[in-house]
Design goal:
205 residues; alpha/beta; Rossmann fold
Length: 205
């Protein structure tokens, strides 16, 4: 929830018009652990009091109905869920490829960079090949005791796809920018990734 709430409010408070979408549309599923007391931040507490936003979260657009040409940028919050769906989601892959081809900023935080693994450039190379990227680290995955449960370790897959993966200290704010591609390491990096995205949008406007 933090990885959605923090960037949402950073962008919305700056006047950005935001559309919410998910693979199936409708109510977007939330990682139950992110609703536990020790996972709360000023952003999540604000969201829980924000009835209009909660209604919007209950009625997200279907990803297949979203066109990159209608938007200036895209932001993917993480959570472990994307490891199981967005990695293989053809509509998500096509959407990211379209944003890349149109030269528009893309930000992905924590586990969400897994959505880039099968994204290709026009020449067939992986989008992240040779790019500076980050994402949830192997040591952070081990710390939450899910390294033997997740289908793959994000840090390893970044490297396998040819990305130049780097990371900060576990749970610290760490964001990498390579051209129009922004990646954040963990939940703590979600607000900063949104700030970087906002700067890119301001430069393009």
């Amino acid at each position: 929830m933090e990885e959605f709430a923090a960037p949402y409010y950073e962008l919305a408070d700056a006047g950005v018009e935001i559309t919410l979408a998910s693979p199936k549309g409708g109510l977007a599923p939330v990682d139950p652990k992110s609703e536990e007391a020790d996972a709360q931040t000023k952003f999540t507490r604000r969201l829980y009091q924000d009835e209009p936003l909660k209604q919007r979260l209950a009625h997200t657009l279907k990803l297949r109905d979203v066109k990159a040409s209608d938007y200036d940028a895209v932001f993917y919050p993480g959570g472990h869920g994307p490891l199981w769906d967005l990695t293989q989601d053809a509509e998500s892959i096509a959407l990211i490829e379209a944003f890349q081809q149109q030269g528009k900023p893309m930000a992905l935080v924590c586990h969400a960079p897994c959505a880039l693994i099968k994204v290709k450039l026009r020449n067939g190379d992986p989008l992240i090949k040779g790019k500076q990227v980050t994402g949830f680290s192997d040591t952070e995955e081990a710390a939450v005791k899910l390294n033997h449960i997740v289908p793959f370790l994000l840090e390893d897959e970044r490297k396998n796809a040819g990305g130049h993966y780097s990371k900060g200290a576990d749970w610290s704010v760490y964001v990498k920018t390579d051209g129009m591609l922004i990646t954040g390491q963990n939940p703590a990096s979600s607000a900063e990734a949104a700030k970087v995205l906002l700067k890119l949008l301001q430069k393009k406007s």
